[in-house]
Structures are given as structure tokens and as C-alpha cells.
Design goal:
The protein has 164 residues and is α+β, with helices and mostly antiparallel strands. 25% of the residues lie in helices and 21% in strands. A 5-stranded mixed sheet has the order 2-1-7-5-6. It has a two-stranded antiparallel sheet with strand order 3-4. The protein is rod-shaped and about 105 Å long.
Length: 164
């Protein structure tokens, strides 16, 4: 009667489909160490997409951190923005970009009067933590020392850098 059931056909075996050679299951649940295997392991194929994306992102983050990205806040606005100072070629372009970003008008800057004709004045925090008006120093010096930008009310900016 056992021969009628054909148990061989339903027997579970380890191995590739279509092969009749059954691989004997391991005697314990531990993996065998590479030293105990007598057969040499097959050569590893080169992995496509190496190095992993994670390393790529880490390298890009290092470039971003060493770049000229600064946070921009505006008095009364509930959010911050981040801009790359390398995109701008001077104060005029920077101020135009800030005006478009925050939909406001910043007056013209003069060393004597600061920003006149506007209710806002852009200021920045330098590496030392000092708050100064945007435009007080040459552009290249500003790019290398600016850590944060702040668009503040002109009335609050009085006394920064020059008489506003």
C-alpha cells in the first residue's frame, strides 16, 4: 500500500528545482564557517551601484556643509528658508532674490543711511555671532563670514553698522 502513495514525489528536499540530487540538511542550525568548507567559494561578482547611496549622500552633505548655504529668517514669518550664497554674484542679486522669496521690497543701501525707503532691513550674523547689516563689508568677505541672514524690521535695525 505504501508503494501506491508515491511518497518520493511529495518528499521535501533541499536543492535546485529540476535536480534529483538532494542536499542533506545541516545537522545543526549553525552556519558552517568558511574554514571548514573544503570547496572553494565561487568568485564574487562586482556589485552594480557600488559604493552605496549612503556614502554618496554623506559626501554630498560634506560639500553642502562646506558650501555657502545659510538660513534666512524674516521677522513675523513663521518659517525659515535656506539659500546658497554661491548662486548670487553680489548684494544686488541677493537682495532681489530675498525680495522675491519673501514678497517684500528692500530699499537701497547706502553706507551713510543704511536701507532707506523700506520697512525691512537685511542683517546677517557673522562667524563671531555679531549682527551686521548686509552690505557693510565687501561681498567676498560677506560670503565667507555669513552664517545666518535675518530680514528685520527697519526700526529694530537702527544702530547696526550705521545709522539706519
Amino acid at each position: 500500500m505504501d508503494s501506491d502513495l508515491n511518497l518520493k514525489a511529495t518528499e521535501l528536499r533541499l536543492g535546485l528545482p529540476g535536480t534529483t540530487d538532494a542536499i542533506s540538511p545541516p545537522k545543526n542550525n549553525k552556519r558552517s564557517s568558511p574554514d571548514s568548507d573544503s570547496a572553494p567559494s565561487p568568485p564574487k561578482a562586482q556589485i552594480v551601484g557600488w559604493p552605496p547611496v549612503r556614502s554618496y549622500r554623506k559626501n554630498n552633505l560634506a560639500e553642502v556643509e562646506s558650501g555657502s548655504f545659510v538660513k534666512v529668517s524674516m521677522d513675523g514669518a513663521p518659517y525659515l528658508r535656506k539659500i546658497d550664497l554661491k548662486v548670487y554674484n553680489g548684494y544686488l542679486e541677493l537682495l532681489e532674490g530675498l525680495e522675491k522669496m519673501f514678497k517684500l521690497t528692500i530699499g537701497e543701501y547706502s553706507e551713510r543711511e543704511g536701507y532707506k525707503g523700506s520697512e525691512y532691513a537685511p542683517a546677517y550674523e557673522d562667524k563671531d555671532g555679531d549682527l551686521m547689516l548686509v552690505g557693510d563689508v565687501p561681498w567676498e568677505m560677506f560670503k565667507s563670514s555669513c552664517k545666518k541672514l535675518r530680514i528685520m524690521k527697519a526700526s529694530d535695525a537702527r544702530g547696526l553698522g550705521c545709522a539706519v
